[in-house]
Structures are given as C-alpha cells and as structure tokens.
Amino acid sequence: MTTVEPRPVGALLRQWRERRRLSQLQLSLDADISSRHLSFVETGRSKPTREMILRLSEQLDVPLRERNGLLLAGGYAPVYPASSLDAPELDAVRTALRQVLAGHEPNPALVVDRHWNLVDGNAGVQLFLDGAAPDLLAPPVNVLRLSLHPEGAAPNIVNLGEWRAHVLGRLRRQAAATGDPVLHDLHAELRDYPCDQPESEVDVPGAGDVVVPLRFRRGDEVLSFFSTTTVFGTPLDITVAELAIESFFPADQSTKDYLQATGRARPGA
User: Fold this and answer.
1) Domains (range + CATH), the chain
2) Among 83, 166, 175, 255, which residue's CB has the most CB atoms within a 10 Å radius?
3) Cα separation of 117 and 130, whole Å?
C-alpha cells in the first residue's frame, strides 16, 4: 500500500490563490498582511496562525468544508460544524426550506446539495420526473444527471442543446471554483451523454429571451421556464452553506396557465 502525504497548509493556500487568479500582492493587500509574510506562509518558511488561515480563507472565498481542511493542514481544529439536516439545531433551516418550496407551488422548486443531489422538492417537480428510468430516481437523485440523461428528462427538453450547454458551462465553472473532484467527474460524465442538437459555447439569446430558457415538452404542451438559485446568506454550518434552492418560473402565459390548472387538479392543492 502507498500513502499520500498531506499537503502543507501553505501549498494549499497558494493553490486557492492561484485558483482565484490573484497575485500574492493583491491577496496581501486584501488580507492586510505583508506580501513577504504571505510568501513565507506559502513556501512553508512561516507557520500561519489560526486567525490568518481564516482571514485568507475569507478573502479567497474558500468553501467552509475546505476551510476546515486548511485548518487541519495547519495543525488546528476545525471550526465549522457539519450538522445533519434533521438535527434539532437546523429546525429553523428546515422550516424555511419547506416554506419556500410550498410557497412556490404550483411552480417547480427543489433543494440540492453541493453535488446537485436532490434533498427536497415540492409537488411541481414531478413534471420533470415522470417517465424517467427507475435507476435515475433511486436515491441519491442527481438532478443534473437526471436532466441530461437520455433515459431521464433529456428527451422532453425541446432546446436540449442550448440547455445542456448552459448546464455544462455552469457545472464547469462551479468545479473550477471549488476544486471539487466529484463535480469534475460529474461534468465529464454529463459531457459524454448524447445530444443531437448543436451546442453553443456562449449563451446567445433567442427572440424575446432575457435568460436561458428551459423548454420542456409535457404531452402536447411545450412549457417554458427560467430558473433562479437561492442560497443562505450568512451560513456558518457546512450543511447549510452547501444547500441551494433551484426555483423554476413560467416564462410565458401559457406555461403559467398550465401550472395553475394542473396545480389545482393535484390532490390537496
């Protein structure tokens, strides 16, 4: 068996600085430390304090999970908890999520984690799930895999090439920003899925478009949506920081009418 030596904290901080495309001078100015001291930290000639690691992490917008890793690499205990979503201390978070999901009906809305696995969703999400292969609906359901897989929602996406390019571009940027190998692997997997439509590397608006639309076939109807992403503004818990709400809104009146009609038809709606 081979063992992999953990990387020193200075090298990890340098990696995050380079990922953010900042010079040592710019980061030292932002963090209010000398560029000489920062250079010594990155090369291992100086051991950073706990407070310096946290300050540099804040300036570099390092995710909370990775901030704990930097602290461990520097010889300090992690400071950010990673609570289970069903833990009592997250009661208010769960309540807020459910209120947002319920309040968004009949429009689809869902909660995902950092790897785009489905955490929760409202009744409106079902229209994207119908007809998908059972293995794609087995937990954990990855919503990006489900959306682009040929046995998932992809056959019902009228503008699959345009939507696929948007999704892959967003995922590529997220993987680059976080350095998360799971996201890199997910991007490689989704990129290999078949698509018989042209894909643009740049989002170019069509007639009347102000955002990239999702045009979804539902029976004889073609529904048009745009989406928004909501995250918690000041998270101090890793689990909370990694949650996002994806909300879909009708992009035209016919889609709005369809959702309102089907929403009223659902039991309990």
Assistant:
1) 9-73 (1.10.260.40), 88-265 (3.30.450.180)
2) 255
3) 18
Q: What is the pTM of this model?
A: 0.88
DSSP state of 142: B
Residue 13 has, within 13 A of its CA and on its CB side, a CA count of 34
- CA nearest to 161, candidates 124, 198, 204: 198
> 93-127: per-residue pLDDT in tens?
999 999 999 999 999 999 999 999 999 999 999 99
Burial of 32 (0-12, 13-18, 19+ CB in 10 A): exposed
Burial class of residue 207, CB neighbours in 10 A (0-12, 13-18, 19+):
exposed
Contact 247, 230 (CB under 8 A): yes
Which residues on neighbouring strands pair with residue 247, listed in sequence order? 109, 228
